[in-house]
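Sanity check

After download, print the first record. It should look like this:
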Amino acid sequence: MLSSASRVTLRSKAEQPRPRERAYVALGSNLGDRAAHLQRAREALSALPDTELLAATSIEETAPLGGMEQPSYLNQMVLLDTALEPRALLERCQAIERQEGRIRTERWGARTLDLDIVRFGDRHVHEEDLIIPHPELANRDFWRRELAELSSDER
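Expected structure tokens:
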């Protein structure tokens, strides 16, 4: 007979803690109070379940991409430590965008808030609406600068 001090509790697979991964999420806004949209996005991301916001880059103003006439963007990137799966993180990011008034109409159009998963651990995901690493990473110098800034924070 086992004493209560020597009992082992077995957890079902569903109860096992999920491994956490580092996710890099880009934030952008060029409509309304751009800085407030980024602030609320950071707060919402840090409040996600099984997620911790580890670091955020400085905010940078950039010209819009895609050749459409529209206001400049404020951009920032955050580093998350999360147990969420990439699909779940995408869905949460889209919900945050909607909370900030994002309406998806045209590609490259102006927006109150844009949240993009740039990297997610070492994962490579290729689904219709989710590609990781983000396919535009090579075309966005400001993302590469932000990744470098966050990488220096991790050391």
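If your output differs, re-run the checksum step. Summary of this record's structure: DSSP finds three helices and seven strands in the chain.
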